[in-house]
What we know:
- There is one protein chain.
- The chain is mainly α.
- The chain has a domain at 32-66.
- The protein is built from three helices and no strands.
- The protein has helices at 18-28, 33-48, 56-62.
- The model has no long low-confidence stretch (mean pLDDT 88).
Amino acid sequence: MMINNGAGTTERQGDWTVHSVMNDYLSDGKLSRRKKAFMKKNYLTAVRDKQIEFDRKFYNYLGDIR
Length: 66
């Protein structure tokens, strides 16, 4: 588990879930670059596994997902 509490953070990267980061996006309308990178890595897998519903606007916000 990677512990990375940068300036102004109150949560550990290891505690992030697709749901918690999506909630951050929905409440703030944006994500930090680290959370955005986390979602680029995990979003489509979560959609395929039916953990979260596909959101076209959010997918476009993430940009190029590989």
